[in-house]
Amino acid sequence: MKKGIWIIVAALLSLGAIIGANALVSTTNVNTMKKKLSTEEQIKIAPKAAVDSATVALKKALSQQNAPAVIAALVKQSAAQLLIDRDSLPTIIDKTTALADRSENPVEQSLLRLLTAQMYNLYLDRNYQIRWRDEIDDFSLPVESWSKNMFTEKIDTLLAQATAPAEALQNTPVESYREALSIGTDSLFRPTLYDFVLNEAIEIYEGMDEYNGIQPLVRQKLLSPAKEFTAAVSSGKTVKDNRILQLYADALKFHAADELSAPFMMWDLNRLEYLGENIYFYDESSAYYDYIGQLKTILDAYRAKPYSVEIATVLVSKLRESGKYDDAKQALDICDRWIKDFPKYRRINALKNQRNGLTGKEASFNLPNVSYPGQTDSVELSFRNVDTLTVNIYRQPDTLSFYAREQYRPQQNDWDRSNCVYTHKYGLNRPLSLIPDKKKIAFPHLAPGYYVVEMLIDGKPGSSTVNHTVSGIKTIVRSAGEKSLELLAVDAQTGKPIQNADVTVYTAKNRSYEQVKEISRLKTDKNGLCIIDTNDTRYYAFAQISTPTDGYSPLADLSYTGYWDRYDKEKKTALFSDRSLYRPGQTVYFSGIQYVNNTEESRVIPREKCTVRFIDPSSRTLSTLEVTTDEYGQFNGSFVVPQGNMFGNYTIQVDGSWANALSISVAEYKLPMFKVEFDPVKEGTSFGKPLTIKGSAVSYSGVPQDGAEVEYTISRRTNPFFRLYLPHEQIASGSSVVDKAGNFAITFTPKRESSEENINKEQAYIYTVTATITAPTGETVEQSVSVQVGDSPYFISISAPQYIDKYKSAGQIKAEIHTLNGQTVQRACRLVFYSLYDSDEESLDSLKIKMQVGEVLIAADGKAVYPDFTKWQSGPYRIVAFSDDETGRIIRNETNFVLYSDKDKRPPRFAGLWLPRTELTTEAGETVKIPIGSSFKNAYVFYSVYTPDSLIETKMIKLDNRCKTIDFKFDDSFGGLATISLLTIKEGEMTTAQATIRTAAPDKKLDIKTSSFRDKLLPGSLENWTFSITDTKGNPVSARFMTEMFDASMQAIRTHRWNFNVPAPIPSLRISTTPRTEYTHNYSIRIYDFAESSYCPIESSTEFLNFGLLWYGKARPL
Fold first, then answer.
1. Weakest mean pLDDT among 345-359, 663-677, 1096-1110
2. Is the N end or the C end of the chain the one with fewer CB atoms within 10 Å?
């Protein structure tokens, strides 16, 4: 797609000149300017004149049967017309199609088909909304109404027609069409029109996923010599629906008579590059080295040809990806040999630049933006081709500006070099290592302060610098109310609160720290806390925390108060339509309910006037209706879809709000007369066991489609839950007949994959059965069903909470056996319990088994006797569930949990903060007991109590690998919600946890009872339905029922959903409980010393003359 990019860039670069030229143009100097301007610029300046001259030229060329002149005039005319009317592309496409249909010259016809395909592709590219349209398949519709699938199908057909007259194109040099083509520098490699057409077709297909797919295993298999590749692709067995591979095979077959020619080489190289896309080096990747091997093979074959530089450049670039010395050395040797042998090749600088990249010097290491005093001992240096490295550290003045201290790097000449506190020269002795190497180098202990770290390589001028701050203070900020923040200052290493620290609050005009002004000075209390007012939000606010020995902490951002209005008092509208799909001319019946739903009130809005608009896909309002809600907040109305309007998504919108809107679709459609359904597969499915899929075909009124023909295909793909690759492929097909009852059956035997790669792996696949049923009337309906099949027909599901209170464990562990398709099976299973070794470096799922501690047998009816967990030690455990299938094959699954109790003295599992209960329910006035803990030694734990509106209090508890229970009284003033927020700091890292406490929500469930009566003695009598509605206490409730009837056959085209889902509002926070801090992150100090790159011309492609103007004319969407 490079060509399209360059076209757009060229158009943009010339735009300014064109605008300026337009300002100077007059009727007297147009002819003078034409002599100076290019053809494209003349068309841009005077498109109407260009259309007229191109029309005359086209008429003349047609009369003379001058194919190059026909195409040149047509493109010029089309480009100029688009500049005049950007909506005229469909008309231009029709004209080009007509010329192609009328032409008797196969070469001319081929190029016109190609040009038409490019225009369709251009239209699709510039109208991105087409991709969101529902698929249709009616080419009688105007192109403006087409869906994406129609464009791709049309383009595919045109490209097939364009490449069809192969012999005529092969015998026509591109030079013979110079009048119609801009001949690129690639003509050495693309000498004929056949090469040109194939290359253009490939470029179009590269943007079309439908014809560009290739599986990784197939991709690797095709990384073979050109003859093998051509034979494999031409057989049609290896790849399906990949047009690009077929075009490469066609090009290679055409040039196969001279395999050492430049065209054959470039087609083969481009073919390998296409197959090599997304193949990278990892873990000695075989695909990577297959690709490398093929590049080496063709490089050796063309060793004596100057244009082999193109292969060498691609190979060197790929060899460098592995990061291995042997590959890098090969790359360097190739560079040296080809640069020496072909110094005058026009693109030899591409290889020289690759060599410069291989031999360039670079070094880097990461340094935290803020480090603890005396903490950093060493850093890991990454370097390449470096002999010596020098590191200098300069202390900066305490008066360093706020802006300078917050920057990643110091300004080039705006930092102090007068106080160098450290300098060291490291001998690395690797002047030509070619690949990155790593080494630990010493780094000095530094006192609190601001520093600049400088690095130089091999004593050469030019250095790299980075800012570095040393401070032992860590600051945490969180919301305290609507106009206040709580600030906490602690020791960054131990988490100990810093008492009596100075807190200086500033404001600035912006985050560049312009117009800084001191606002206030505060002190932290014994717990390191202070409250900061944030009344003035017009400026950026921040704070500096300092002690007598450390005034260098990172600035604390005070600009975010973390307070917002959660109460949604705006009215809402639920909208309903009688269907989701309409034809032009049909009536759209709609209804709606207006309501308010928040924590303060939940009600409908009666007698409310509102405006309903009917909007088409172009956002144009077609109709407007004024409605008023009744006593239940309901309204209704209708709109008519206008005839002749565009297809697509229409919108019903209330009061101009897109939040209160409903989308429907308008299209031409045909309702199916019957439906096809598959029965669920209830039995277990496994490899080698015949599997029968049963289905039915009946009309929507229940009439069986007796005698209907069934054609089916069966395809297989990998189950994503298994680490196994298998291409999605069709494995079987067949036919059947629907019986008198409307039923049919499809039977097949799924087989295990027997390839050497997968034979020893556990396997499971998803089989998709697609049935196409043709009724006696000729109507066809297609339906699919997916069935999972594996080594075993069953799997065990086992669930347990992550934390289980040993005194409240009843019913919390559940295990069931299911078929692979989700049906529950009554089979016995066994649960084995293991205690685990705890580790602070491993996740719960990664802990190692210590010993078996229990076992439970669950009978087929689900009955089981579980262990008495109160007698077990608190700690981490694993449950492994076992069962077997009919063949005796073992199936298993496992889960992990932590057993605890409120009596634990230490956290049962290593945790910076131990908080097993995160959701609690209570009643106002009750005292809630919350177990907390920390596995850290000497941990300072801060816990804060939040209501929906504000921070109530913050306290500090010191824990030494201990647990503690917090007693918390839930006050009636909390508004039904409170949050306990915990935090602790250890070794610079902040750990947080949070528990939410709510009052029990009232039960608002309605009890709806129905009864019906119809007098069966009177034919045609109505059936009367009676509804009785009461609340949970049995009291009657006044309610409105809304009903809908629609054609069930519509569901086969567009699913229609009709529901009113308004969950009961629950209290929610208006204040953020999340603490914020300046997290430590790494600054990278990096230095390079590379030779200056040499200019290398880009290989330009042959293209239609002036075709770029079609893109220029379509710079804006249609």
1. 1096-1110
2. N
pLDDT at residue 765 tops 80: yes
Q: Among 21-25, 145-149, 823-827, 1090-1094, name the one with the lowest average pLDDT.
A: 21-25
Residue 1000, pLDDT score: 85
Q: Is 975 left (phi over 0), alpha (psi -120 to 50) or beta?
A: left
In the chain, pLDDT over 90 holds for what percent of residues?
65
Mean of pLDDT values over 513-542: 91
Closest to 455 (Cα-Cα) out of 391, 502, 513, 401: 391
The tokens for 161 are: 């027609």
Tell me the pairing of strands 803-805 and 890-900. parallel
Q: What pLDDT does residue 20 have? A: 37
pLDDT band at 1110 (very low <50, low <70, confident <90, very high): low
Task: Please answer whether residues 769 and 787 qualify as being in contact, where contact means their C-beta atoms are separated by less than 8 angstroms.
Answer: yes
CA dihedral 85, 91, 97, 103 (to 10 degrees): -80
Closest CA to 463 of 453, 449, 471: 453
Condensed to tens digits (0 to 9), the pLDDT of residues 1027-1079 reads 899 988 889 988 888 887 777 888 888 888 888 888 877 778 888 899 999 87
CA pair distance 670, 661, nearest whole angstrom: 27
Q: How far is Cα 575 from Cα 778, in angstroms, rounded to an integer?
A: 39
The conformation of residue 563, written as its DSSP 8-state character, comes to B
Measured between alpha carbons, how far is 324 from 284 in angstroms, rounded to an integer? 10
Q: Cα–Cα distance between 100 and 103 in angstroms, integer? A: 5
Q: Angle, nearest 10°, between helix axes 89-102 and 67-84? A: 170
How confident is the model at residue 1078, as a pLDDT?
A: 84
- Intra-chain end-to-end CA distance of the chain, in Å: 22
CA 961 to chain centre: 42
What average pLDDT score do residues 880-905 get? 93
Task: Show the 3-state SS of 804-824.
Answer: EECCCCCCCCEEEEEECCCCE
Report the largest interatomic distance among the alpha carbons of the chain, rounded to a whole angstrom: 110
SS3 label, residue 296: helix
Residue type, position 732, single letter: A
Cβ proximity of 1069 and 996 under 8 Å: no
DSSP H helices, 127-261, are: 148-163, 166-170, 193-205, 216-221, 226-235, 243-254
Q: Give all domains of the chain, ordered by start, each with its CATH number.
A: 363-470 (2.60.40.10), 473-557 (2.60.40), 572-666 (2.60.40.1930), 674-790 (2.60.40.10), 794-900 (2.60.40.10), 919-999 (2.60.40.1930), 1007-1039 (no CATH)
The count of C-alpha atoms lying within 13 angstroms of the C-alpha of 319, restricted to the half-sphere facing its C-beta, is: 26
Which amino acid type is present at position 1035?
Answer: N
Residues 151/89, Cβ–Cβ less than 8 Å? no
* Better-scored residue on pLDDT, 1049 or 537: 1049
Where on the phi/psi map is residue 331: left (φ > 0), alpha (ψ -120 to 50), or beta?
Answer: alpha
For the CA atoms of the chain, what is the radius of gyration? 38
DSSP 1101: P
- CA 257, 262, 268 angle in degrees (round to 5)? 75
Residue 944's nearest CA partner among 928, 975, 968 is 968
Distance CA 834, CA 814 (A): 17
What are the Cα distances from residue 913, in Å, to 4, 75, 1072? 56, 71, 20
* Number of Cβ within a 10 Å radius of residue 442: 12
Residue carrying the six token digits 């069962």: 883
User: Any idea which residue has 């395809």 for tokens?
Assistant: 715
DSSP per position, 361-407: EEEEEEEESEE-TTT--EEEEEEESEEEEEEEEEEEPTT--HHHHTS
Position with higher pLDDT, 1108 vs 110: 110
Alpha-carbon distance of 805 to 856, in angstroms, equals: 19
